Amino acid sequence: MHIHKLLLLTIGLLLASSASGVDIKATATKAEDFVPEGWKLHSVAYGDLNRDGQEDVALVIQGTDKKKTISFSDNYGNGTLTTNPRALLIAFRKDDTYELVLKNETLLPCQDGTVWDENGTAIAERPWFDDLLDEGGIKITPGNTLKIKLDYYAPYGKPASSTITYTFRHQNSRFELIGLDAKHITPKREHSVSVNYSTGKILETIMDDDNDEPSSRTIEKWLSQDETGYDLQTLDFVTLDNIASQF
Prior knowledge:
Layout (H helix, E strand, L loop, with lengths): L2 H11 L13 E2 L10 E9 L8 E8 L5 E6 L2 E6 L3 E9 L2 E8 L8 E4 L5 E4 L11 E4 L4 E10 L5 E12 L2 E13 L2 E8 L4 E8 L6 E8 L14 H8 L3
Antiparallel strand pairs: 1-7, 2-3, 3-6, 4-5, 6-7, 8-9, 10-11, 11-12, 12-13, 13-14, 14-15, 15-16
């Protein structure tokens, strides 16, 4: 599958919703204290993001509105899923206090296939799809970067798995996208793309296992100047679609 089509599929099935302008306190002594009423902590990562030697924090929070929990029953089984919105928070450590420096309410997908209509009502689609953040999620690396990984697996029809990892670094007083790595695997093909936004280099690798003649090829490309400098503060799925269109 073409990587651009992969991202479009991800966007269509797991559209990120707005967190409706959730109010987050500006400072906190503990990471959990940033979670407002009506929300819960989904995941958390600690590490130094601004290279000052102190342990910063990134959090994913999720709404807890029971009205947005949907039960389903189909040929693939029975269960429930939540279509509550999610938000990404980042706070820098300043001595004994965390200071909120970023809140993004449109980047992260809800659990399973979620589409929001014009009235703000959540409609679930394909609830047998796993939550992209369950096997992925957020991570702060020793290299002072934030990684957001979305992991997708579709066992029905023709089995396929896909992983998309976005890498951000705090530079120029903001969190800039410096890397994108995407991989899509089917029984007879592995297609991966690695984009380095710092150097502008793109590597695309395609491995085919067709009968007794497996093959592999790598294509090197380069970004144009206007395809760099994406800011995590404003990045959403619409922007990701534009980023991915070149691949």
